[in-house]
Amino acid sequence: MIEILWQDVRYGYRMLRAAPVVALTAISSLALGIGANSSMFAVVHAALFRPLPVDSPEELWFLFTGTEESPYDSISYPDYLDYRDRTEVFQSLSAFGEIAVSLGGDSAPEICRGLIVTGNFFETLGLRPQQGRLLTPEDDRVPGEHPVAVLGDGLWRRRFGAEVSVVGRIITLNGRTYHVVGVAPRGFRGPDVLESYDIYVPMMMQAYLRPPRGGFSGEMDPDLLDRRNASWLRVVGRLRSDRSPDEAAIAVGTLARQLERVYPDTNEGESATVFPVEKVDPRAWPWLSSVSVLLMAVVGLVLLVATANVTSLLLARAVSRRREIALRLALGGAKARLVRQLLTESLLLSVLGGALGLLLASWALHGFTRLVPEAGIFSFTLDFRVDLEVVLFTFLVSVVTAALVGLAPALRSCRGELAKTLKHTDGAEGLRGRFAGRKALVLAQLALSIVLLVVAGLFSKSFWNSRAAAPGFRAHEVLTAPLRIDLLRYTKTDGRNLYRDVLERARVLPGVVSASLARVVPLEGGGRTTTFRLEGSPEIGPEWDAERLPVVGTNVIAVDYFRTMGISLLEGRDFSDRDIEDAPFVVVINETFAKRFFPAVDALGKRIRLGGDESSRTIVGVVSDSKYRTVGEPATPHVYQPLAQVHETGMRLLMRTAVSPEALVPPLRNLLLSLEPNLPVSDIVPLERLVRSALFPARMAAGLMTVFAVLASSLAAFGLYGLMSFAVAQRSREMGIRVALGASPAQLVRLVVGDGLWLVTVGVVLGWAGAAAMSRFLAGFLYGVSPIDPITFGSVALLLSLVMLTAAYVPALRAGRSDPLIALRYE
């Protein structure tokens, strides 16, 4: 059997060499279609399906607590201890919380993302160190006793050059010294596939690395480990081999109800559930799954177009080989044997196309990773690479594609009357007869291309709408730098002194026009909201219901913020140096706030209360609207508070410059380090970079959709060109007869172009129907454009029609030049 298959492969290879143009065209088409699918599968696999590099990941489960409205919330440390000590379904249960630390030492301090973990964290995950040792329960007994740290593989290689001698080295975290005891295993970046962490420290160091920041202001109480109302941890456990996930869910649910009875003040209405670690974070699943379905659907359509193109090509090839196939059948060849041989040739094409597609996918993933912005909220931590799963997926797609492109031509080649086939060397069937199958394939290509072009057009229009949307501020020539004094345990007095010194010295740097501070930088991905009450409104009083109060966005800013950001002051005044803590509390609101809550009166002088404040604040100014979280968000009410009245322990410096912002990065870094040597200075970037980062999803979606649509349309155009060329060749006798009977070249051109126009018209109608069917699914991804935008639908149809008619016009010209003497020479 192996020998027969090898014979089929060798014969198929010889046949492909005998028709190199056909073979190269088919391989290239399949490579583009399969490569697009492989690259997108690699992205989806990395986000949703790649298992953590830990021991037996299927045994690991997250434990979430929460309410009916929000079932996947964090957990407090005292609650974690109860679940760890009072449930028997887990072999081991560990907790971890995210931290941001200022890492110092031999180089300038930088902000690193890390995890503060219980001593059994690495044991629970079943990990072994790459260097040194990992954290153990002995490191996590007494608060503050073991200042040790484990480095992530990425940080070890990036900052320490993968030196083995790093074990035992002293580093500083938030200004305190820690001993490096080991390096986490290569490939492990954290317990969540969507996140990447650089450093791991014991839970008992919480007071120094993650103090509570209630309201992000004032003196910081370090005691989080005793607070049952402070939910900040996630929990992961390894299930016992003799227990099922259902039993685990029942056990933690029962304990949650017990804790609710014992601690009603903090645990009322709280439930507990488990979720497999192998799946993506359930809070991110809805968005990720929707994007993944859209991506795979689009590249699936591209592969269908490529498949139809190659199938049409092989059908034409089958016509040219029909005498060969008929002769082999006449000499006793079995039809099944011939079908297998032809399918082997298709498999060779698909495997070669898949191999080339895999190379294209690897190149595309590398390019995609380089396109991801280095700063901002959309900096991906996923590892996009071609691994074994991607290779297997590519091979499976290649095999399925081989069956799709080869079965119809193989079966058709073995049909028909042998005598008639052996007698005639040329057919006389017209386009509407013999080529019905190829017409159907071309129609499918055209319709799918219309769908992809419409999707690409909608996403492109959405991106340009986002880009053209006025953000409400001028990001050009603004430099930003974090002032993360929240990592350095500054008191309120020390923090205010540092802010004052930074602003005074930054404003006199050469090239600086103005400087200010802000808690939240627009479009950086942060943002805070609070409820509010209008003074004198019915809500004020003991009976007001906090759940029905309106919500407003808030920001804390320093003097000169609006000037630095280029935000227009519409009414009233800006904050000044007189707005200090002992002065009457004031706020500035944006235009949308004024219009929505003071539609008929002047907002200036009105008083509001924010959140749970007991004192009210006077509105002293109204400024123009800005974009705060995303470029495409609608106008939302916003309130600004002065930093001198609402102290914040983590701000960002903003400087408007008269020179290139990049030129001021070195002097600003030196300035900050001279004021605070432990202040992280690795994230000094122009504001424009953050804005570009906010636009990255829209730009990437438009780019990907356009690439795939152009690819599919090109394949469809080649398919129509091939069909029309083959039809003209097969109708050469008919064309010669028409010329002999007096038909003009223009009439022959109109005849052939008319057949192409009929195909294009039907394809456009079918494509419009398919695109309209996708409109409901696309609506959530678009900004400022309807999913059934008539301009996009019409422009796409016109563009594709011109391309397709051009593809049909070239064979039509050849038909118009038919020579009746040559065409009628052979019967």
Describe the structure using short key phrases.
alpha+beta, 6-stranded mixed β-barrel, 24 helices
Indicate the radius of gyration in whole angstroms: 34 Å
- Give the overall shape, derived from the CA principal axes: globular
What is the chains' assembly state?
single chain
**What can be said about the biggest beta sheet?**
6 strands, mixed, barrel
Overall pLDDT confidence: 82
Unreliable runs: 214-218, 425-434, 539-546
Give the termini distance in whole angstroms. Answer: 44 Å
Walk me through this protein's architecture.
The chain is of the alpha+beta class and 827 residues long. The chain has 24 helices and 21 strands. A six-stranded mixed β-barrel has the order 2-3-8-5-7-6. Helix 2 packs antiparallel against helix 12 and helix 2 packs antiparallel against helix 19 (687-730). The two termini are 44 Å apart.
Write the layout of secondary structure elements.
Blueprint: H1 2-18, H2 20-49, E1 60-66, H3 77-86, E2 90-104, E3 110-117, H4 121-125, E4 131-132, E5 148-151, H5 153-160, E6 170-173, E7 176-183, E8 199-202, H6 206-209, E9 234-239, H7 245-262, H8 264-267, E10 271-276, H9 285-320, H10 322-330, H11 335-371, H12 388-413, H13 418-423, H14 436-468, E11 478-483, H15 492-506, E12 512-518, E13 528-534, E14 551-557, H16 561-565, E15 569-572, E16 586-590, H17 591-597, E17 607-610, E18 617-623, E19 638-642, E20 651-657, H18 665-675, E21 685-686, H19 687-730, H20 732-740, H21 745-773, H22 775-778, H23 790-816, H24 820-823
Parallel strand pairs: 3-8, 5-7, 14-19, 16-18
Antiparallel strand pairs: 1-9, 1-10, 2-3, 2-6, 2-9, 4-7, 5-8, 6-7, 11-20, 11-21, 12-20, 13-14, 13-17, 15-18, 16-19, 17-18
